[in-house]
Design a protein that fits this description.
mainly alpha; Arc Repressor Mutant, subunit A; Tetracycline Repressor, domain 2; 2 domains
Length: about 220
């Protein structure tokens, strides 16, 4: 008898093949069950619905991208500024390729992002933790003097959101996106030289400006 993890893996593999070939919207749970040689009722024991399968597939892809980004941070002989730049460009390339070369996965990703915002928030938290790690290392090496590493990582993430899965936000070709990201990275690094994004800046803002500042980020 197959263990539960093996059965789940086979379901995800069969579902992804269907999503890629026919599209997420045109795939049914009954078809996925038939591909797995099981009844629809048995399939529902593992996944309550098609969206849950899509979220699991997207989750695996997101965690694989995070693992590759961790490898970027391990490159020897790089300063914190260089690691931050490497990280942002690697992140754009990885997420761009995930969607660009698999159009049906692009459709599935849009559905998951819209209907399961908590999924996107979980992946963003993993991504933000890596950013915080780079900034903390920069503080330790004396490159940065950032008052609030976690808050600054959140603001960098907000400023560069367009470049994560960029096809979800823009129709620009990859070369244009690289040009834009180069400019944004330059601005971010200049901001880090000025101490990063400190919470005190928001606390010191007049009350009539605080809501506007928070909305803008």
């Amino acid at each position: 008898m197959l263990c539960k993890d093996t059965v789940r893996g086979n379901i995800l593999l069969a579902a992804k093949k269907r999503f890629v070939h026919y599209g997420y919207a045109k795939t049914t749970m009954a078809e996925i069950a038939a591909d797995c040689s099981m009844s629809p009722g048995n399939l529902y024991r593992y996944f309550p619905g098609k969206l849950d399968i899509a979220e699991a597939i997207a989750g695996e892809a997101g965690e694989q991208a995070i693992a590759k980004l961790r490898d970027v941070l391990k490159r020897p002989g790089r300063s914190a500024k260089e690691r931050l730049r490497d990280f942002m460009f690697a992140d754009m390339r990885l997420t761009y390729e995930q969607l660009e070369y698999d159009k049906q996965v692009y459709e599935m990703a849009r559905v998951v992002m819209m209907d399961r915002p908590q999924f996107a928030n979980r992946i963003l938290a993993l991504h933000r933790a890596l950013l915080s790690e780079i900034l903390a290392a920069g503080n330790a090496s004396g490159e940065f003097a950032i008052e609030d590493v976690v808050f600054t990582a959140e603001m960098i993430q907000s400023a560069t959101m367009k470049f994560r899965y960029p096809q979800l936000h823009s129709k620009l070709p990859y070369e244009k996106l690289e040009r834009e990201l180069e400019g944004v990275v330059h601005l971010v690094l200049n901001g880090l030289d000025d101490g990063g994004a400190g919470r005190d800046q928001l606390r010191r803002a007049p009350d009539d400006q605080k809501s506007e500042t928070l909305v803008s980020i």
